[in-house]
Structure of MarR family transcriptional regulator:
Amino acid sequence: MPKPIRLPFDPITRAAQLWTRRWGRTSQPLAMASATSIMRVQQLLITDYDALVGRHGLTFARYEALVLLAFSRDGRLGMSKIGQRLMVHPTSATNIIQRLDAQGFVERVPNPDDGRGTLAVITPAGRAAMEAATADLVQHKFGLGMLTAAEHEQLFDLLRKVRVGAADFDA
């Protein structure tokens, strides 16, 4: 895995201290530090995930699409459903599926229920790449092996609370 640049101090803690000096304690320095920490952890995890699944010719976004297709009843979904479930813009979903199609990991076929629509269908090669990438992610503990089971539950609950508060889904 690519290693991040190591600083001799935590830049987010330093930023919170400087934030407080500049704007005072009522300026939400802990909220700023929490938000910045979430963004940094996301960068670290995506870098790790892309490196892991990259061994199998995937990006993490393409891996997620393959998992979504594998979870579907018959290995196929419409493009609008893919965009909704991946929580991405339809153009991004189309781009992901086009790239997977070019790799032979999915096929695009006409939707028999909608003459204008297209279904993405996972291929045996796509299923094999997804299974191998999943094994790597699991072995790597999704980059979160430093957390206990209780900490995973706590982290999930806290982040879910943020998602519910943002109306990310119907709770």
About this structure: DSSP finds seven helices and three strands in the chain.
